[in-house]
Write a structure and sequence with these properties.
single chain, mainly alpha, 81% helix
Length: 233
C-alpha cells in the first residue's frame, strides 16, 4: 500500500489575518495623512505647520490603529475561547449528541447519513474539540484571532503609509504642495491596492481602482473643508 503523500498547493487563507491588518493600516496611513496635509495646506498654512500637523497625525493614527485593532481582534479571540470552552463542556457531558450534531453537519454538506456518522466518529476519536471547532464553529488555525500580531501590523503599516505623503510634503515646492501630495498619494494608493490584491489572489486592477477612488474622494472632501475654513478665517 502506497503511503499517503500531501501534494504541494499554494493557498492564501493563512495570510488573511496579517494581510487585512497591514492593508488597512497602510491604506489608512496614506489616506488620512495625505488628506490631513492637503486640508491644512488648503486652509493657507505654511509648509512647516503642514508638516507638524502631518507628523502629529502619523503618531496619533498609528496608536489609534494599534489600540483599535487590538481591542477588536481581542474581542474576537475572547468569543472564540468562550465558544471552545462551551463546546468542551458539551463534549464531556454528552459526546453521543455531539457526534450526531457533527454528522448532521456532514449530511447537510452532501454525505450519506451512514458515511456522515462514520466520518464524525473517526474525527471525534482523533480530535473531538478540533472537529467541532472547525466544522461547527468555523474556527481554524489559519483564521484564528491574533490580537498582538494584528495590532503591531496595523500600527507599523499605518506608519509606513503615513511616511510617504509626509516625505512628499517635506520635499515638494510650497506652491505645488497640494497637487504634489495628492498626485503621489494616489499613485501610492494604486500601488498598495495592486500589491494587496496580488497577495490575496484577487484582480490587480480592481484592487488598485478601489483604493484610489476612495483615497481621491477623501482628499477632495478634506481639501474642500480646509479651503472653506481657511477662507472664513
Amino acid at each position: 500500500m502506497k503511503s499517503l503523500r500531501r501534494h504541494a498547493e499554494r493557498h492564501r487563507t493563512d495570510r488573511i489575518g496579517w494581510l487585512r491588518a497591514a492593508v488597512l493600516g497602510a491604506n489608512d496611513g496614506i489616506v488620512s495623512t495625505a488628506s490631513l496635509v492637503v486640508g491644512v495646506a488648503a486652509a493657507g498654512s505654511d509648509q512647516h505647520s503642514v508638516l507638524v500637523a502631518g507628523v502629529a497625525g502619523l503618531m496619533a493614527g498609528a496608536m489609534s490603529m494599534a489600540s483599535g485593532e487590538y481591542v477588536s481582534v481581542h474581542s474576537q479571540a475572547d468569543t472564540e475561547k468562550a465558544d471552545l470552552a462551551r463546546e468542551r463542556v458539551e463534549l464531556d457531558a454528552d459526546p453521543a449528541a455531539e457526534r450526531r450534531e457533527l454528522a448532521t453537519i456532514y449530511v447537510a454538506r452532501g454525505l450519506p447519513p451512514d458515511l456522515a456518522q462514520q466520518v464524525a466518529g473517526q474525527l471525534m476519536a482523533h480530535d473531538a474539540l478540533g472537529a467541532h471547532a472547525r466544522d461547527e464553529l468555523g474556527i481554524s488555525e489559519a483564521l484564528t484571532a491574533r490580537p498582538v500580531q494584528a495590532a503591531f501590523a496595523s500600527a507599523a503599516s499605518f506608519a509606513v503609509g503615513a511616511v510617504l505623503p509626509l516625505a512628499v510634503t517635506a520635499l515638494a515646492p510650497v506652491q505645488g504642495l497640494i497637487p504634489w501630495v495628492s498626485g503621489t498619494s494616489l499613485v501610492f494608493l494604486a500601488g498598495l491596492g495592486a500589491m494587496a490584491a496580488r497577495a490575496g489572489g484577487a484582480g490587480v486592477l480592481a484592487g488598485a481602482r478601489r483604493v484610489t477612488f476612495w483615497g481621491a474622494l477623501a482628499m477632495a472632501i478634506t481639501a474642500g473643508v480646509g479651503a472653506l475654513f481657511g477662507a472664513v478665517v
